[in-house]
């Protein structure tokens, strides 16, 4: 048996993974102008089996992005417009009374819009906490329980929620338990001058770009499994774990900024997100192991929504991104110093 064959196979699999990722990103870019980081972040969530929270002002193409992704994957798509009067049954479904030919009556479950592969929860913070919580089981367990009966959702399953960061009237902030279930929180920025010009050209002319199917659901599931096979070394894994612990004010790995401004840090889901995203970035770079660079690349979207500031932090206007960046720098400096000490440098 050729000992090089396993490595050759891994190289080929990584190349196919990156090629499919690039094809999917290019297909979405036919419709979405710019927003490369946003598109990449959404695709990372999909391939990690996680969910994405998109935050940005209205009109930046968040809904269009999700719809285009579903078209490029030929997956079932549903859109839920969250409003204050939306009820949990409007999301998950309910049992309705049916009548058989003999005149008897029975209950039949009528599924709600959450029974799709890609679910857009538009303006999710406009619904009441009771309605928001209807997504919790679906996001974590990939199932819905109605009247004691568990209904499984079809894989792949991705929830993409949007929220407006500037309009707070009539909204209900997402509870921490739900925020923590989002793999990434992605900030959608306003377009540049050249991007805005391209948007106008595409949307005010006579021709509209057509999105073709480039991946099927089974292929997405295969890519999800492949990503989990990527190795991660002990030092890099410890970097991810210390980054998460470093967001806690009572941790020995936390910098002074965290001690001063943070009330609560990330849960273990933050470490899961860092490592899974790092494995995907490694494959995109043609590697079979996670590096420190991959974790840095995932740090902001994976941790920014898992940090709760204290009163002083809110009063000072401290941004979670600043906290994450300082934790990342501080923790890596600690690891390097310890490595040099062990080496006797």
* Helix-strand topology string: HHEHEHEEEHHEEEHEHHEHHEHEHEHH
Low-pLDDT windows of residues = 1-5
Q: Indicate the multimeric state.
A: single chain
- Determine the CATH topology of the largest domain: Rossmann fold
* Percent of residues in beta strands: 15-25%
Mean pLDDT value: 84
Using only CA atoms, what is the Rg?
Answer: 22 Å
| CATH classification, class level of the largest domain | Alpha Beta
Strand line-up of the largest beta sheet: 2-5-8-1-9
Write down how many β-strands occur, each being a DSSP E stretch of 2 or more residues. Answer: 13
Overall shape: globular
- Total of DSSP H or I helical runs spanning 4+ residues: 15
- Write out the CATH superfamily name of the largest domain: P-loop containing nucleotide triphosphate hydrolases
Q: Report the end-to-end length measured between terminal Cα atoms.
A: 43 Å
